[in-house]
Specification:
alpha/beta, Cobalt-precorrin-4 Transmethylase, domain 1, Methyltransferase, Cobalt-precorrin-4 Transmethylase, Domain 2, 2 domains, 6-stranded mixed sheet, 5-stranded mixed sheet, 8 helices
Amino acid sequence: MHNFEAQAGVFYGVGVGPGDPLLITLKAHHLIRSADVICYLANATATPDAKGASLTVGASSAVGTSVAVGTSVAVGTSVAVGTSVAVGTSSAVGTSLAVGTSQARDIAQLSIASRSHPLIEIAIPMPMSTDRTAANAAYDLAATQITEQIKQGKSVVFLCEGDPLFFGSFSYLLERLSDAHECLVVPGISSVNGAAAALQLPLTLLQESFVVMTGRHTDAQLEQALNTHDSVVIMKAGRARPRILAILDKTGRMADANYLAYIGREKQEILMDVAQLARQSGPYFSLFVVLRQERNW
């Protein structure tokens, strides 16, 4: 088997799939094992400060370490599982403060744990908000840190849930870095494909039309999609779940709809009768798959 390794001075966007670590591609696995630097988004409760720093983790460090951009940390060769350091603080390893977790890193933890040489990790704290100001500030700071590593001749892998270029956070770093640095993309399995596999239902057949929407689209846009297309996937349901359910009811597509959350993860949820679904906000990592009940097989 070809052992593909990360190349010096290259920035890689690596898709890690929807949640099941075994769905990571071989190419992604080899890059995660061989890269000098791995970066990823992490949940944040604050905006990263301007200092910026990275965490160097020794080869014997345990899976679960999460340190945010803007953190200065004293690290030896061994880091405790679950270590988390708050944005903008200076602390010894072992302190547990509120920054949050990285879904992408969790998915890739088996590949990370199989490494045999030291690793630099850069966590990018990302506020869960529709306001893009804080998000853009986080991407700007992350781009600066990644550039510093690339200029030192390091290979840098950015872990991205699903596919890097399908609603992927990597897109925002690619836009900032591609003009000055070599960037390569390793595709991953999207949550849309993961959902179809979990349901064991084809997304499209023959002349069926197919569209992907999100909970951020307006009521009118969602209604038009549901009235126009045979197959509709509505991603990022989250807070929009009550509104989506109302629109499914209004367009007569309630019976066509399936609801999935945390696809490929231990707490995966599948509900094929969405009429039973509570009309309240749900997890961010959830989606609706709407397929015609009568199909031309």
